[in-house]
Amino acid sequence: MVSDSIRMLDESTGGTRVSMVMAAIRQRIAGRSLTSGDKLPSIRSFAGTMQVSTSTVVEAYDRLAAEGVIQSRPGSGFYVASQAAALALSEVGPKLDRAIDPFWVSRQSLEARSAELKPGCGWLPPSWLPDDGMRRALRTLSRAAGPALAEYDAPLGLPPLRQLISRRMGERGIEASPDQIMLTESGTQAIDLLCRLLLEPGDTVLVDDPCYFNFHALLRAHRARCISVPYTPAGPDVELFAQALRDHRPRLYITNSAIHNPTGATLSPVTAHRVLKLAEQFGLTIIEDDIFADFEHAVSPRLAAFDGLDRVIHIGSFSKTLSAAARCGFIAARRDWIEGLIDLKIATSLGGGRLSAELVLNLLRDGGYRKHMEALRQRLSRAMGEVTTRLKALGIEPWLEPQAGLFLWCRLPDSIDAADVAREALVENIVLAPGNVFSLAQSATGFLRFNVSQCEDSRVFDVLGRSIARRR
Amino acid sequence: MVSDSIRMLDESTGGTRVSMVMAAIRQRIAGRSLTSGDKLPSIRSFAGTMQVSTSTVVEAYDRLAAEGVIQSRPGSGFYVASQAAALALSEVGPKLDRAIDPFWVSRQSLEARSAELKPGCGWLPPSWLPDDGMRRALRTLSRAAGPALAEYDAPLGLPPLRQLISRRMGERGIEASPDQIMLTESGTQAIDLLCRLLLEPGDTVLVDDPCYFNFHALLRAHRARCISVPYTPAGPDVELFAQALRDHRPRLYITNSAIHNPTGATLSPVTAHRVLKLAEQFGLTIIEDDIFADFEHAVSPRLAAFDGLDRVIHIGSFSKTLSAAARCGFIAARRDWIEGLIDLKIATSLGGGRLSAELVLNLLRDGGYRKHMEALRQRLSRAMGEVTTRLKALGIEPWLEPQAGLFLWCRLPDSIDAADVAREALVENIVLAPGNVFSLAQSATGFLRFNVSQCEDSRVFDVLGRSIARRR
């Protein structure tokens, strides 16, 4: 499996000009800039664009036609086939350079056998999660009343859990009544439902550079046009943010405020205020993804707290702190948007998962949870220090020292390409997160994101050290 | 709550011409025939369309503008506002006649307090589900290894559950290897992911008339154009099916084969064969939704069994037979479509719910499951007989005698409008399923769908009897 995908990578990265042209067309189809029935660029013009000969483009188009991705109409040219989007989505993974594919880290991490090491993944190892609490919650649930075990959840989701979330948000300065909160199956589903509600195909969405790679994958699935603004240690670069709003009038901005993924940066109050003023001026809606909230030692600024859920929508989940096996997330938004969200949730997933909601409620109510989180924050803090020391010894420098969380965003020495290091590590069953999967502008070639909770095995540093030594 | 929605219904159904014009515009926006930035019909032309005066249209447009649904551009006309889709989706429920809204039954059923009676809903009462098995499964899981309780599921889903599903499909004559099966959070999410993979906005999709109402809601969310063909006791009307394929070239057909929702009809082998031949001729892909499979007494024809998963995609779920609280469904499809589906699943929900998958696996492996299903089928069969007798006594006639399942599709006497009966029943806290929520062509005004497992309380028949007596 692993050796197979490596082989395919080599074929395409080192590969021929024909594969390069094929990959470029596939990427346009996967990215929806070419869709079913669209005419492909003429052979002559595309040869110019790609800086190859016309015969290379002819060969590439012929092979794509043989695969059914495009169709030749004699005398008229080549057109995207009606099932091309399906084919392109399935092909874009293995055939393109997976190191810069937004699915790369997710798929490698989710497919990884438990024996593999995953310093690139975005979650805690099972042994860091509240295992005892989870087992207690399951036993408690095994004695619950029938409906808890058998019925769909209510459209908004379990009322006592929404009340609890409302109180917890209040502790972070965000006012949201329980009827402004809708439970979802996950933080990802929360953003997906919001995109369904707020976006039309072709709308522009602003993200941070770098940002969580799955935002790119999700926005592609919504046929949105994605633009990005560089992230600084205090939040987005405000000058460039203003310019992006002026030039592109994005409909949405998706970001993390408290513990930014992947950088670990924290939004400053002054940046928060300026971002909100600009959002108001340009009619921008903001999705604030706060799934790492419980990892904070002290409360830092939230856009939703300043804005009062007017143009900011706040989302969260319990996958990072309780369990990724019991899926449960939520949306807190203006009451007048909640009705539309309920309809979309029913249309696309019918009832929510009541069992997961009951488990999360049990776990959060359990007296052990706050103690567990306290200990977990200390443990992460220690791990952050230790991993920083070990990385620095290899010449790998954190971009900043995060106040909290799991992630260290690090620059490799000597302009080494992180994608090369990640591919090499994968051969040794180590999943890394190379910088450019987080960067729409592909501006993070020399970066890696480390999850400090997944770096306990020293093989991680041995393999990194050898890989860097070979490249210096 | 109930009295409120009844009041709004009366206002709009009995309501003024202005509300009618407003409702028509809202419906076009909700149905995506008008989208953000589109110009509205001119006042004069729309007055002609709606057979009202121009001053009525002026008033309706002004009110919609005041609500922010549309915007006036002086000298140019009225345009759909950028957040109109969100507003329209949230407004279409209460303001239009909810009895013909595809969300009506779902929302009333899911929002119902447990004290309410729900003969219109689509699932079994908790007491009919394998309660003991579920409690055993939860206790077993509370002793499972850490990853089962803490980690995301693999992208395809828990391997032993996929093997078990593959074997069970084999028993129904459908050949699908475990790597052709992907777990989803629900049957609904399965269809949603397939729509994401296979549809472009504006593509045409064929459904049965009548069909499960949520197909309409889901396809609307995908901006698909929906057409329908009448369903007969042996499957779709083949002549009209052929004509629909010739005239509209739909990309997809979504249907149930074994126990059709809402009619309880069973596809005949000869219809199955003709549908598949037509599908091949016109390049049609078919989604066969088989979530009621385990209710069958004897195996009836499946399109996927005849076709061998070439152009048929088969989906299933466990919400109807095990638990609606532990969400788990699946897709069985051509191997070359599975890769694209994995990417879409990751992009829109990241990891699957491993806990639900582990619970379903435990329940299905439990020796008690087959015995439970045997008893359940007998119980449903008895209930079907009893409910049929009680309905006939009220002059309510089943359209056919289903071979199995939960549903009776029934015609009211004397051309009584089922929507009126359903609204009246709701005042008495009884949720019915009026025919037209299942019918794109609005051809089922005189029908109701009954779930025989939810008809044990004789108040259902008392209220029905009184409502019919008043109308005869």
What does this structure look like?
The structure is a homodimer of 472-residue chains. With 472 residues, chain A is α/β, with parallel strands linked by helices. The first copy, chain A, has 3 domains: 2-94, Winged helix-like DNA-binding domain superfamily/Winged helix DNA-binding domain (Arc Repressor Mutant, subunit A); 100-122 and 370-471, Alpha-Beta Complex (Aspartate Aminotransferase, domain 1); 131-365, Aspartate Aminotransferase, domain 2 (3-Layer(aba) Sandwich), CATH 3.40.640.10. Helix content of chain A is 47%, strand content 13%. In chain A, the strands form 3 sheets. In chain A, strands 3-10-9-8-7-4-5-6 form an 8-stranded mixed sheet, with helices on both faces. Chain A has a 4-stranded antiparallel sheet with strand order 11-12-14-13. In chain A, helix 7 packs across helix 16. Chain A is globular and about 70 Å long. The two termini of chain A are 30 Å apart. The model of chain A is unreliable at 1-15 and 86-97 (pLDDT under 50).
CATH class of the largest domain in chain A: Alpha Beta
Mean pLDDT of chain A: 88
Radius of gyration of chain A: 23 Å
CATH architecture of the largest domain in chain A: 3-Layer(aba) Sandwich
What oligomerization state is this entry in? Answer: homodimer
CATH topology call of the largest domain in chain A? Aspartate Aminotransferase, domain 2
Low-confidence stretches of chain A: 1-15, 86-97
Q: Which structural category fits the helices and strands of chain A?
A: alpha/beta
Tally the helices of chain A. 19
